[in-house]
Specification:
The chain is α/β, with parallel strands linked by helices. Helix content is 43%, strand content 18%. The protein starts with 5 loop residues before the first helix and ends in a 5-residue tail after the last strand. 38% of the residues are buried.
């Protein structure tokens, strides 16, 4: 059985907030989590036409019937609810009264910031991270299969064909979610844009170049990138600013939250990818970065993630910052270790002068060790 690490964090916050909001990409397991782990709450899906009409046409009557320990799933479908919920929780001062959930992150957060600021604790649930996959015994035996299958629960729970799954996921995503937010007149053009983003996974985002290759305006490219980000398809990793070196790269790097979707958009079918492929390093780096980001949300640790690169090509793949503790990560897809893999970590330590610096190298191998003042971490033990 799949256990989600976020459950205990939500239960803790229910003691201090009247409302909990759970968002994340579609099919990441939000509904199952809420129905399985919070049986004391009444579950209502506002995608149900009758419930949606009731909540919209007679909001007061709806909330008189459903006003204590209620889960409102896909709550963004009834925006009028938010202002009514504000009045209820301000009057009652009861903690853990409502749980809100939705897959339209932009609409959900917009309504929360307008009506429920200060009254809600927000969580994000993604497809399982590697630690959760291992605990559920879902982890494939070989790394190429892990990367190309991705991490969406339905693929493992229902033994679905990954290629068919991602084809359906993209079709539904474009036709349903995207069309509700903006008017995309050409689905094929948007699909091409997605594939161009996949080619740039793990690279610094150049919007002008992306717009040119997609034959769209710079403004449209910026809008579509923002849309993909708020819909939990892509993740933009910001650069780390400091005084170590003034010649720094200042654009974000682009990653996909799920490597299965990334592999599909990259044209990989039937798990046909080899560690000697030109894009293998990009796929591996994407998996590591996305997993650390997912773990951060699932454990509610509130770390900040960055990358660092200067104009001379010196680079740190990933940095995390929490309570003034700085961690650096070098990410290598190779299954064997070489001394030059540690050069970037050592260079950053030298120029930064940070004393309490945790150096980590995550690689495609299987052995843990300490080397060159760095912790060497196999990909299966990412944390």
């Amino acid at each position: 059985m799949l256990h989600r690490n976020i459950v205990d964090k939500i239960r803790h916050e229910l003691l201090g907030y009247p409302i909990i909001a759970l968002t994340g990409p579609r099919q990441s397991g939000k509904t199952r989590l809420l129905r399985t782990h919070f049986p004391e709450y009444t579950y209502l899906s506002l995608e149900d036409p009758d419930l949606k009409e009731f909540a919209t046409r007679d909001t007061k009557g709806f909330l008189q019937k459903y006003n204590d320990k209620i889960i409102f799933d896909e709550v963004q479908n009834v925006p009028v609810l938010f202002s009514y919920l504000q009045g209820i929780v301000d009057l009652n001062h009861v903690m853990g009264q409502f749980i809100l959930s939705g897959s339209q992150n932009f609409q959900l957060l917009e309504n929360i910031t307008q009506s429920l600021a200060g009254r809600v604790s927000i969580f994000r649930l993604f497809p399982p991270d590697i630690s959760e996959m291992k605990a559920a015994h879902w982890m494939p035996d070989n790394l190429p299969e892990v990367i190309t299958k991705g991490f969406y629960p339905a693929i493992y729970d229902r033994n679905l064909n990954p290629d068919r799954y991602y084809f359906n996921y993209l079709t539904t995503y474009i036709k349903r979610d995207i069309s509700q937010l903006i008017n995309i007149q050409n689905d094929r053009l948007f699909n091409t844009f997605l594939k161009l983003c996949a080619r740039r996974a793990g690279n610094i985002l150049n919007l002008s170049e992306l717009a040119k290759d997609a034959s769209i305006s710079h403004t449209t490219a910026r809008s579509w990138i923002s849309l993909l980000e708020t819909s939990f398809i892509i993740y933009l990793l910001p650069p780390y600013y400091n005084n170590y070196n003034k010649r720094l790269i200042k654009s974000p790097k682009l990653y996909f939250y799920d490597t299965g979707l990334l592999s599909y958009l990259s044209g990989i079918r039937n798990g046909d990818i080899s560690p000697i492929s030109p894009i293998w390093g990009q796929l591996f780096e994407n998996m590591v970065v996305s997993d650390l980001v997912k773990q951060n949300y699932h454990h509610n640790t509130l770390k900040e993630f960055y990358y660092w690169r200067d104009s001379h090509g010196h680079e740190i793949d990933l940095l995390s910052e929490e309570n003034d503790q700085l961690k650096t990560y070098e990410i290598k897809a190779s299954t064997t270790l070489r001394s030059n893999m540690f050069e970037g970590l050592e260079y950053f330590r030298k120029i930064s002068g940070v004393q309490d610096l945790s150096q980590n190298l995550i690689y495609g191998g299987i052995e843990s060790q300490t080397r060159n003042d760095s912790q060497v971490i196999p990909w299966r033990d990412i944390s």
